[in-house]
Design goal:
The chain is 89% helix and 0% strand.
């Protein structure tokens, strides 16, 4: 169960990294074009990916801490 939690956290990290990179790429492309109205949605996507990453990292830390506690109990 702990391993699946860590695996899910790693998948979430990858997903949010991809979202962040996509939004950043779209923002960079918009700054070279004349489409400022589209940038708002991309900025929201960027922030969403950032906060999603923070949440996933909290899950990862909790799972890591549980693994450490389990190892301490078994040792």
């Amino acid at each position: 169960m702990l391993v699946s939690g860590l695996t899910a956290a790693l998948q979430g990290i990858q997903l949010n990294q991809d979202r962040f990179a996509s939004a950043a790429d779209r923002i960079a492309r918009h700054t070279t074009m004349d489409a400022p109205e589209d940038v708002t949605r991309d900025l929201v996507d960027l922030k969403t990916a950032r906060y999603g990453m923070r949440a996933i990292l909290a899950v990862f830390r909790a799972a890591d801490e549980m693994v450490g506690t389990l190892l301490d109990v078994l040792a």
